[in-house]
Amino acid sequence: MQALVCQPAAGPALFSAEGMVGVVFLITVALVMAGAAIAVSSRRLVRAVFGLAVCFTGLAGVYYFLLSPFLAMMQLLIYVGAVSILIAFGIMMSTPEEQQTSAMKRRATLAGPMAASVAALIFAALTVLGLKTEWQVFPRQGSFDIKEMGLSLLTTYGFVFELISIVLLLAIIGALVLAQRGRN
C-alpha cells in the first residue's frame, strides 16, 4: 500500500483571479493609508482635503471588498462627492491662517511622537487580533439588481440613509460657519 503524503497547498498565483483580487485589495488599502498620511501630514488645508478624499475613495473600495456595494456607493457619493467638496469650499471662502506662535510649535512637537506611539499600539493590537481570529467566508445573498436595491433603501436601510444625510447637513453647516468666520 502506498503512503499518502499531504503537501501544503501553494497560495494563489499572482496572475490568477484570486491573486489579482488580492492585488486590487492591497491597492485600495494603500489608497486609504496614503490618503490618511497626506491628510494628516499636509501643512496646507487644500492638500489635506485632497488626502481626505483619497482616503474616502480607498475606504469605498474596502467596503466593496466587504461585500457591501451599497455602502461603497454611498461612501463615494456622500463623503467623497459632497463632504470633501463642501470642506474645500469652506476652506476657500475663509481667510488665510495666521502664523503659529512658539508655544503652539512646542506643543506640536510633543503631539507627533505621542500620536505615533498610540497609533503603533493600536496597530499592534489589531494585528494580533487579526492573526488570532478564525475568519469565515460568508456567501453573497441577493441578486443586487436595481429594483432590490431601491426597495432595500426605502425599507431596510432607510434609517442609515437618513443618518448619512444628517452628516451631509452637518458638513454644510460647518462650511457655512468656516465661511462666516473667515469674513469677520
Written description of the protein model:
With 184 residues, this protein is mainly α. The protein has six helices and no strands. Helix 1 runs antiparallel to helix 2 (45-65) and helix 2 runs antiparallel to helix 3 (69-93).
Keyword list:
mainly alpha; 6 helices; 184 residues
Number of strands: 0
The termini sit apart by: 90 Å
Number of helices: 6
Q: Biggest β-sheet, characterized?
A: none
Shape: globular
Low-confidence stretches: none
Brief summary:
The chain has 184 residues and is mainly alpha-helical. Helix content is 74%, strand content 0%. It has helices at residues 17-41, 45-65, 69-93, 102-132, 146-154, 158-183.
How does the SSE layout of this entry go?
Blueprint lengths: L16 H25 L3 H21 L3 H25 L8 H31 L13 H9 L3 H26 L1
Helix pairs in contact: 1-2, 2-3, 3-6
